[in-house]
Every structure is written in structure tokens, then in C-alpha cells.
Amino acid sequence: MNKVLQSLKLTFLHCGYSKLDSSWDYDNVISPYSRLYLVTKGTARIYHSYEQFDLEPGHLYLIPSFTYSRYQCQDHLELYYIHFSEEVGDRLSIYDMKDFNYDLKADVQVFEYFKQLIHLHPTRNLMEKDPSIYDNRKFMVETEKKNELLSAKSYIKTHALLQLLFSPFVQNSKSFKLNIRNGFHEVLNYIKEHLHEPLTVADLAAHSNLSSDHFSRVFQQKFGIRPSKYIQTVRLERSETLLLTTNNTLAQIAGKTGMGTVSYLSRMFKLKNGVTPGTFRKRRPGG
User: Do 234 and 192 meet the contact criterion of CB atoms below 8 Å apart?
Assistant: First the structure.
């Protein structure tokens, strides 16, 4: 494990301080990079990784990449933020290898780390608050190129600060979630990003430069599940999340998850959960 972690690469993208209000209300956020939020004032709610987090001052939050997220502020929120990408070895993700905490109590030193990063990068703040504008690979690549202009001292210090802020979230109690030699990490991310589209095994095979038969065989060997079944499982999990965290209609949820029609969504949902989507939604707090 330690040899693998030695190849962990954290790439700085953005940092800044934001004052937010009720307009900070975004659903279906699936970002290609990770976020760190250090809350200073106000409250808000974030949903990701199948958990709800009620943001509060003095806490540091991690939102991993390629994870369905929902953000909602009822009134007022102020926070420091950092965006970064991460990679381990041959384009793998540490999120596929270890468990994480996502909410930590921040000490005085954490505030200092954020301030140092902003001092190092005073022009790397986001001009837009809407993630649909900046949450894309093109924007990320353009931002990464700015790191090439940093002095050696700034580059090394930036990387060190990111490691100090990121490392406390990593849990050491569990071994790899996936076989780290699988080479299919990008395929899993592709599925999450394109879940609303009519994904097929042929699409995923083409994305991996493999034949459909070879792709299906290797995928099942690595993950113990057929790719078509995996896609359906992720779609149903995303449906559960949307039912619990939004007021989207069943038709909207069917569209966002690639389930197609309400009847198909309802039928498959009941097969998996034993209840209809409507009954499932009523079980949520305030439902």
C-alpha cells in the first residue's frame, strides 16, 4: 500500500473565499475534481456519497470527485474552498482504494493552511458560483496549465499544503476496495458522468479500446458483476439519492438516471427495494 501511495499526485486547481446565499442551490453535480470546504459562518446542506452533511462553522469537508452531489443553502454561508484533482499510479483514484471521512473538526492550523494557499494563489479564485459552468474537463485542463508557470518554491509549497489538508480524511482501517491493477477506473467515472445517456456495453468497450466480448469478460473478472448489471445498479442508486434529496418528479428522475420511462424506473426500483419510488420517498425526513 505504501508503495502505491508514494505515487499519489494532488494537483491544485482553485482556491478562494466565498459568501453564499440561497442562490447556492445545485443538483446533479458530478465534478471531475475534488473539493475541500472550510466553513466560517452560516449553515448549508450537502449530499454526497449517500450521506447528508449539515455544514457548520469550524468544520472541514471533503467532497470527492465523480460523486453525485447536491448543494443547498437556505440563508447564508461563508467558506474557504480548494479544488484539486488526485491520481494514484496509472490513472487510478485513491477513492477506489481507501475509505474516507468527509467531515472533520478544523483546528487553527487548518485555517492557516487555507490562508497560505490563497496568499500563494490570489488570482486562482472562481469567478462563477454555478458548478455547471466550471465543472468540466476542459476548464480543469486549462487551470492545470497555470501550475506550469509557478516557481519551484510555490509549486512544492502548494503540494505540501494540499497533502496536509487532504491526508487527515484518509482511513487506514480498510484494504483496497478495487483491484488496483484493474485499469478500469476511467470507465467507472465515464459511467457516472454519462449515466443519463443510453449507455451500452459497446459504448464502454469502445471507450476502453476493447471489443465488446473482451470488455465484458474483463469487467466481470475485475468487479464480479456484468457491466450492464453494474450500470443498472448505479442508476437505481442514483434514483434513490434523487428521491431522498430532491423534489424531482419521477419523470425527471427517470431522465437524469437514464432509466428512460417512469414505468421502467418504478418496476426496476420495486424489484430492488421491495417498494415503489413513491413509497420510498415518503420515508425520508419530512417526506
Answer: yes
C-alpha cell at 188: 467507472
Secondary structure class of 186 (helix, strand, coil): helix
Q: Is the pLDDT of residue 116 over 70?
A: yes
Q: Which domains does the chain have, with CATH numbers?
A: 2-169 (2.60.120.280), 185-282 (1.10.10.60)
> How far is Cα 170 from Cα 178, in angstroms, rounded to an integer?
16
Residues 6+ apart with CB under 8 A from 87: 8, 9, 11, 93
Rg of the chain, C-alpha, whole Å = 20
For 134, the grid coordinates are 466550471
* Cα–Cα nearest to 219, from 259, 188, 257: 188
Q: pLDDT of 211-257, one tens digit each?
A: 888 888 888 877 778 899 989 988 998 898 888 878 889 999 999 99
Distance CA 227, CA 277 (A): 24
> In the numeric block, which cell numbers belong to residue 149?
508557470
